[in-house]
Design goal:
Order of helices and strands: HEHEEHEHHHEHE
Radius of gyration: 19 Å
Largest sheet: 3 strands, parallel
Number of strands: 6
Structural class: alpha/beta
Helix content: 40-55%
Distance between the termini: 21 Å
Strand content: 5-15%
Length: 184
Amino acid sequence: VAHTRSAGHEVEVLRTVAAGGAQAVVLFAHDRSIAAGVVEELRRDGVVVVLVDRYLPDLPTDAVLFDDFAVGYDVTVTMLDRGHRSTGVLWSEIDVTSVRDRLAGHRRALRERGLAELPERSALRPYAYLEPPARQRRLRALLESDDPPTALLFGNAPTLAVAVSDLLAMDVDLPGSMELASMD
């Protein structure tokens, strides 16, 4: 099992594993993974490949998944049930099925409650990997909008941790001014 640093490194590791005679691979695919071709080669060569947390939409493989749609939906509904009508969502990874499914659940919850889906509040744009000044500018713009969010949702706990650090650096009143929730 390897958690890789880049899409290219992911392919390199998979090729190395294949060359070493592995009989099975468990893969946590990288954001914007380009490994589908190598995974397909491994499978043709008889190597069992199981993806974890996400899948490759164009390649049928075995996968162990959470119901990410339900996670996005349930976290959003919980915040709406707590009285929040203005939410924002921040992400780290943006091009993996788990994140896209969480966003779809979030959008469904908003639609069912008759709330607008505002792209500027939930678009799949990286946040956690930006430099601190860029993150804080994006967060400040969200917080100083005409209808600032009373709840911020995060694609995962590491993104929440980065945002808490940014909010504290920006001297935002926590937890008094808003509620925070993670989708994992």
